[in-house]
Each structure stands twice: as structure tokens, then as C-alpha cells.
């Protein structure tokens, strides 16, 4: 996971503003075009990133104790820019709605001492089981698989001059982190997440 500094974030804002004024939508990589719509009326001249339109989404639902409750239809959480800012902390907003990255080793969710699950801090979708977390040495919470494949969205990310696979929450399409092919068995994957995007629910029983 690459660190995005303040100047890079400012460049992204300028680019998005220029794109809006030019009447064009940003697309990346042909068939991997990012499904983002520029929302009208965003504050501060920076368009809100509404990644997907409203509607139901089928998720795998889990109780707080980790029990799999099966597939469930839930309304996808789609908010305005102002509503996201009110719902999330400033850092969570930058990470989850502006595709930013928190500073390494700044989070609080590396290797919790007890069993539990991680939910999306924005919409409470179940994302990871603590049993699949491992110490990657990167400074970000890392997992070798999501709690359910349908609960996350994978998209191609060509930003910063490199090819990566970005991970978003299927319940609200908020950016969570990236997945890499350098994880441990049994999957060989490393889902490298931003701690600020996760809420840990400890298992009490």
C-alpha cells in the first residue's frame, strides 16, 4: 500500500475539478473503467465521489458473534458529499471517499487479542474475520481473505504509476485498501486495509 501525501491529494482534487469543468468522466483501463459518477452540488468545488447508484445489493450477512446468517438484500448506502463528511471522521472521509491512505502504523486494528469480526466503519458490512488477520509487517491490518467474497469489490487501480487492485466495501462502495499476491497460505493473498475504514467487533462468547 502506497502512502499518499498531502500534495498528491491536492493534485487529485485539481484533476477532478478540471474533469468536471470539461464535462468528461475519468475512465481507467478500458473494460476496467471506474464506475464513478460526479455528483452535482458538491461543496468546496470538489465533486463528491458517488461510486455506484442507489439500489439493493446482495451481501453475506454475519451476526456480531461471527455466525453466518446467509445472503441478504440490503440497500446500498449512497450519500452526498456533505452527508459522508458528517458520517465519517476527516481521515476516514479522505481514505474511504477520496481513495487516500492512512499513515503506516497509525491504526489500532493490527492483530487484536481476541476473536471477532471487522465491519465497514461507514455501513457496518461484515468484511473480515479476525482469525484471517496476520502480521504483514507493513503497518496496516492485513488479512488473507475477506469474510465473504461478495462483501468486497475489486477494481483496477492505475494511480501512482503502478498497477494494483483496489478493494471497496460492497455495501457502500467506500475505499478500504488494496489486495496483493504476497500473502500467506492458504490463499497467498494480502488484503492490506486502512485501519480507519474498519470497526472491530469483539466476540464475547
TrEMBL record:
<dbReference type="InterPro" id="IPR006311">
    <property type="entry name" value="TAT_signal"/>
</dbReference>
<dbReference type="InterPro" id="IPR002579">
    <property type="entry name" value="Met_Sox_Rdtase_MsrB_dom"/>
</dbReference>
<dbReference type="GO" id="GO:0033743">
    <property type="term" value="F:peptide-methionine (R)-S-oxide reductase activity"/>
</dbReference>
<dbReference type="InterPro" id="IPR028427">
    <property type="entry name" value="Met_Sox_Rdtase_MsrB"/>
</dbReference>
<dbReference type="Pfam" id="PF01641">
    <property type="entry name" value="SelR"/>
</dbReference>
<comment type="similarity">
    <text>Belongs to the MsrB Met sulfoxide reductase family.</text>
</comment>
<dbReference type="InterPro" id="IPR011057">
    <property type="entry name" value="Mss4-like_sf"/>
</dbReference>
<keyword id="KW-0560">Oxidoreductase</keyword>
<protein>
    <recommendedName>
        <fullName>peptide-methionine (R)-S-oxide reductase</fullName>
        <ecNumber>1.8.4.12</ecNumber>
    </recommendedName>
</protein>
<feature type="domain" description="MsrB">
    <location>
        <begin position="81"/>
        <end position="203"/>
    </location>
</feature>
Amino acid at each position: 500500500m502506497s502512502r499518499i501525501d498531502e500534495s498528491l491529494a491536492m493534485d487529485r482534487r485539481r484533476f477532478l475539478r478540471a474533469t468536471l469543468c470539461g464535462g468528461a468522466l475519468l475512465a481507467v483501463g478500458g473494460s476496467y473503467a471506474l464506475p464513478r459518477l460526479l455528483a452535482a452540488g458538491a461543496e468546496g468545488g470538489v465533486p463528491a465521489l458517488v461510486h455506484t447508484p442507489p439500489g439493493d445489493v446482495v451481501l453475506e450477512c454475519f451476526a456480531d458473534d461471527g455466525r453466518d446468517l446467509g445472503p441478504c438484500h440490503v440497500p446500498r448506502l449512497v450519500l452526498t458529499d456533505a452527508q459522508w463528511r458528517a458520517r465519517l471522521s476527516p481521515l476516514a472521509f479522505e481514505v474511504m471517499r477520496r481513495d487516500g491512505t492512512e499513515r503506516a502504523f497509525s491504526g489500532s486494528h493490527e492483530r487484536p487479542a481476541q476473536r471477532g469480526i471487522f465491519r465497514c466503519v461507514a455501513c457496518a458490512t461484515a468484511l473480515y474475520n479476525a482469525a484471517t488477520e496476520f502480521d504483514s509487517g507493513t503497518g496496516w491490518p492485513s488479512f488473507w481473505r475477506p469474510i465473504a467474497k461478495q462483501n468486497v469489490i475489486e477494481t483496477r487501480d492505475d494511480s501512482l504509476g503502478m498497477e494494483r487492485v483496489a478493494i471497496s466495501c460492497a455495501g457502500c462502495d467506500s475505499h478500504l485498501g488494496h489486495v496483493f499476491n504476497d500473502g500467506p497460505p492458504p490463499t497467498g493473498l494480502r488484503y492490506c486495509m486502512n485501519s480507519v475504514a474498519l470497526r472491530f467487533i469483539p466476540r464475547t462468547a
